[in-house]
Amino acid sequence: MFNLQAMFITFEGLDYSGKSTQAKLLSEYLDSIKVDNILLREPGGTKISEKIREIILDKEHLEMTPLTEFMLFSASRSQLVSQIIKPYLEKGSVVICDRYYDSSTAYQSYGGSLKLDEVLQVNEIATGGLIPDMTIFIDISPEDSFARSHRRVSKDRMERKDLKFFNNVYHGFKEIATNNPARFVIVNGLLTIPQIHSRITETVNKKLNL
Length: 210
Ligand code: TYD
Prior knowledge:
Elements: E1 7-13, H1 19-32, E2 37-41, H2 47-57, H3 66-90, E3 94-98, H4 101-111, H5 116-127, E4 134-139, H6 142-149, H7 163-179, E5 184-188, H8 193-207
Parallel strand pairs: 1-3, 1-4, 2-3, 4-5
Helix pairs in contact: 1-8, 2-3, 3-5, 4-5, 4-7, 6-7
This protein binds thymidine-5'-diphosphate (TYD).
Thymidine-5'-diphosphate (TYD) binds near residues 15, 73, 98, 99 and 108.
């Protein structure tokens, strides 16, 4: 495996945008060209963070307050950054993360009830200010996300939200992307899986000078 240059790539998008598939395909592509990389998901990615994930998504935890939920996402993220992301970047790996703090900004603040400046402040604290080099936003509309969600039977706690919520989250992602143009790459999520994958590899190759 080659260690070309450390690079931190995050994937963002609404539920059912296909970002998890694309994150996996990117990792497999980098494996195939022997670029050292690791694929992570949020919330999760460490033993502690996976346990926090179970608490967050548990269907029975209906009494969870928005602030508790956000603190749990942030605790999971903080552990992941310290235990895995930073050490991998320090040894020159590419780190691919399926969701990162933009998800908290979009879901907990724009979609939820938490104040934007407070969410941004906690995001910064939880990650020690670690900003992704590239954020790939797989763009599907709230309507498409919602329509795709109805095809799945068993929903976790986070997926039991209405269309208005997803409209707000979507608007949030768009605004975050507009505010961070150098970091964001927006890909049309209605293209085919291979088409999306090739747009992503083109952009990543350019950034890695391949
Ligand atoms: P995820 O496992 O990425 O679900 P999917 O692959 O189906 O998109 O995320 C689980 C849920 O948690 C999803 O509804 C988005 C939400 N979420 C937040 O609300 N805030 C966050 O900070 C993160 C990381 C996820």
